[in-house]
Amino acid sequence: MKKLLLGSVLAAASFTSTATIIEMNTSQGVIEINLFDQQTPKTVANFLSYVQDDSYNETVIHRSISNFVIQGGGFTYSDSLDSITTKPAVENEPVFSNVKGTIAMAKLSGNENSATSQWFFNMANNSAGSAALDTQNGGFTVFGQITAASQSTLDKIAALVHCNDMPVVDITAEQCSSSDVSFSSANLVTIQSVTVMDDDPNSAAGLTVTENTLIDSGAPINSDSSSGGGLGWLLGAFLLVLPRLRRAK
């Protein structure tokens, strides 16, 4: 199977990897992801364990930050946002760089080995600078890369109206600022299913990815409360600022 590579994420320091391929079907389109089985085996196994027991089905994208990240994997919605059942935390594996087009694990502030179910897509090069996701909190583990065709789905989600940080459908910005707007699950970005399309860990031989060269380089480590946007709580596994919306009767 010929893979489409996201050329914009490539850097000089890169090497070849292999990947299982999964397809994430969302209410806004399909996202195809190559998982880095060999270089981040514990993280991939953890992610696939949630896929295999359908934990991600009917979950929502609960956070989207412009030119930064799109985050999910933690909540379903019925009358309110409900946390999914999580498994033991997985050991951090900061091998790859948090460049645009990659998927990484979210975790708790101040605990580099606290990732469970939540993940985020990097919508920009977040490796260094004010974000510094390659070094902050032990580095955030990148465990996959989207195909080029999948970027349009993420861009579509990012372009939606946001209530606080949550992308919503068929709700205006004015309604988001009201305390009396009704909404239902149809107004949220839903992950309908996540499916393994190719379970051969060697299925993407030749895939070129960007190595995290900062984690062991002595680069400055940003604190979780830095001016880069409060990344500790932003990517925390359980903290969530809820939109001021009420459920439709």
Description of the molecule:
The chain has about 250 residues and is an alpha+beta fold. The chain has a single domain, classed as Cyclophilin (Beta Barrel), CATH 2.40.100.10. About 10% of the residues lie in helices and about 30% in strands. The strands form five sheets. Strands 4-15-2-3-11-9-10-6-5 form a nine-stranded antiparallel sheet. Strands 1-16 form a two-stranded antiparallel ribbon. The radius of gyration is 17 Å and the shape is globular. It starts with 13 loop residues before the first strand and ends with a strand.
How would the blueprint of this fold be written?
Layout: E1 14-17, E2 20-26, E3 29-35, H1 41-52, E4 59-60, E5 63-65, E6 69-72, E7 75-77, E8 81-83, E9 102-105, E10 119-122, E11 142-146, H2 151-158, E12 161-163, E13 166-168, H3 173-176, E14 182-183, E15 190-198, E16 207-210, H4 231-234, E17 246-247
Parallel strand pairs: 14-17
Antiparallel strand pairs: 1-16, 2-3, 2-15, 3-11, 4-15, 5-6, 6-10, 7-8, 9-10, 9-11, 12-13
